[in-house]
Here is the input.
Amino acid sequence: MMTFNYYRNLVGSMILLCMSTFVLNAQAESEFVGKIRSVSIEGVTVTEIKDNDKKAVIIGTAKDNKIISKYMRALDSEIGSPGLEYIKKDKQGGAMSNFSISIKKPKK
Amino acid sequence: MAELHPQLLKDCLILGRFPLCHLLLMRDANYPWFILVPDRDAVSEIYQLSEADQQQLLRESSLLADFLMTSFHGDKMNIAALGNIVPQCHIHHVIRYHTDAAWPAPIWGCVPCKVYTDSELKNVVDKIKQATLDGFEFQENCNDDI
Here is the structure.
């Protein structure tokens, strides 16, 4: 009976440890995304932030290239060096540009 | 007028323009590093420019290179059109010194960008401002609204 209780407690502890690690990781990711969300530039609309393992990818729209570069500079000074993955003019003929910008996560 | 690519706007200071090209200064104090960007829409390679524009580009590039080598006392001028990251056609003009951070290797990927101090930047900009290059117009504080 003592052996059973020992293993039961051990398994329970391991599950708790795994859960807390998972929660901590999730918090770290959301903190990074939250930091990105806190960077706001007039004329830029962020539509989606993909939170990947090593980097975050920001998808959005802006009215022109100067505004996108201003947003990238703000990201650079607040978080880290951003990389522009693409810019595409609105297919509907609108003035807006769609963009995708990635930022590497700091090493843990 | 072609819109400058956001990566160029982010990484560079706009100094002015020739009849065909914008002249930019890369914000990297490791090397005096200038970029010519032909003001043409949807052009990513030099061969896509009209023949007249190709001639004009060569003229502006040679004028610039000659002036830079004299003004900055360089040991070698590196001119390159890569465009692997920024698809808008642009031509790098980098003054190299035997003592620079990457010599004799190409500059790409060698050392991290170094931020200009205010006085270093002013020195470089003043040299361009005082230049008498045929057809070149200096643009004061062109990045102020960016």
